[in-house]
């Protein structure tokens, strides 16, 4: 059963999402806390994972990141990774007060941008007893340099500087597309063809609150974000990492390199697909049961 929920952050922003009750369980149950990746909202297949976990006996708390979707917060489209990490931890704190959550059996799940966030959360917050990180960002700067040509990167930094000066002068933050809409050479945050196909494809029939824009400052913060630096500190919390072998958005070889830096207990699942394929079809049918097993094993 799914119910709408909302909770307040420490700075007074209301975050909204869903709580899934685990099938066959009454009262306090293990819980998985999840949020989505860069600009994405919970309707972009988080419900499929949540339903699968709930059918396997786990409660799930899925919510929209601040400034996105059903959640409050301004400026709209601002994606601050460290604020999103603090909000994950607030979600855990709030869930621990609810009658349906076993406060000692909480896991975290993240994908893409939030796949990086859960690495940091698990390293810093020992209330987390298990983590699944799917197709994660592990190094913002290195990943950005894979996505953006060197000659274009200098121009991007000039855009960052101009935006900073404009904000200091009292202007609103500059905005940028998440994915290109008409031409592949349009300025955007995620300049891959599969990003275009995912965000501007059939998913829009489900994710009606998604908007194809974020603040330019969000891209700057992306380039400054290094969640993989925390991966060696996650142990002894159990870590499962799911990598898409054909991923060229959060590039697979870089993710695999960082996985080797993690300490046990850990498990790696490599899917023979691209980044966005991990949410659907045969990849989901293979991955979701493995993730459920991981949480069942370590949350009890």
Features:
10 strands; 300 residues; alpha/beta; Rossmann fold; 9 helices; two-stranded antiparallel sheet
The helicity comes to 25-40%
Q: Strand fraction band?
A: 15-25%
Q: Provide the CATH superfamily.
A: Alpha/Beta hydrolase fold, catalytic domain
Largest sheet: 8 strands, mixed
Average pLDDT figure: 97
| Helical run tally | 9
What are the secondary-structure elements, in order, as H or E? EEEHEHEHEHHEHEHEHEH
**Widest sheet, order of strands:** 1-2-4-3-5-6-9-10
Terminal CA distance: 21 Å
State the secondary-structure class: alpha/beta
pLDDT below 50 for ≥5 consecutive residues: which ranges?
none
CATH topology: Rossmann fold
Describe the protein's architecture and organization.
The chain has 300 residues and is α/β, with parallel strands linked by helices. The protein has a single domain (2-141, 226-299), classed as 3-Layer(aba) Sandwich (Rossmann fold). The chain is 35% helix and 20% strand. The protein has 9 helices and 10 strands. The protein has helices at 46-55, 81-95, 113-124, 140-147, 150-168, 193-199, 216-223, 252-259, 281-299; strands at 2-8, 14-20, 29-35, 59-63, 101-111, 128-134, 175-176, 214-215, 239-244, 266-271. The strands form 2 sheets. It has an 8-stranded mixed sheet, with helices on both faces. The chain starts with a strand and ends with a helix.
């Amino acid at each position: 059963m799914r119910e709408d929920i909302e909770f307040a952050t420490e700075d007074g922003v209301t975050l909204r999402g869903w709580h899934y009750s685990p099938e066959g369980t009454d009262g306090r149950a293990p819980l998985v806390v999840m949020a989505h990746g860069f600009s994405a909202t919970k309707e972009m297949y988080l419900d499929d994972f949540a339903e699968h976990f709930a059918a396997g006996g786990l409660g799930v708390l899925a919510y929209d990141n601040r400034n996105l979707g059903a959640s409050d917060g301004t400026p709209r489209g601002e994606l601050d990774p460290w604020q999103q990490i603090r909000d994950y931890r607030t979600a855990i704190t709030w869930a621990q007060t609810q009658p349906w959550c076993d406060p000692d059996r909480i896991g975290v799940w993240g994908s893409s941008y939030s796949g990086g966030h859960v690495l940091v959360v698990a390293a810093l917050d020992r209330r987390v007893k298990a983590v699944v990180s799917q197709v994660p960002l592990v190094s913002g700067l290195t990943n950005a340099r894979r996505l953006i040509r060197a000659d274009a990167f200098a121009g991007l930094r000039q855009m960052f500087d101009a935006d900073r000066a404009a904000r200091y002068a009292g202007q609103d933050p500059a905005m940028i597309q998440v994915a290109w809409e008409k031409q592949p050479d349009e300025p955007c945050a995620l300049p891959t063809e599969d990003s275009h196909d995912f965000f501007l494809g059939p998913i829009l029939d489900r994710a009606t609150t998604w908007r194809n824009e974020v603040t330019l400052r969000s891209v700057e913060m992306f380039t400054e974000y290094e969640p993989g630096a925390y991966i060696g500190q996650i142990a002894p919390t159990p870590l499962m990492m799911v990598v898409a072998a054909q991923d060229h958005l959060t590039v697979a070889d870089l993710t695999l390199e960082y996985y080797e830096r993690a300490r046990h207990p850990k498990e790696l699942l490599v899917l023979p697909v691209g980044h966005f394929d991990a949410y659907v079809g045969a990849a989901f049918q293979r991955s979701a049961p493995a993730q459920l097993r991981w949480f069942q094993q370590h949350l009890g």
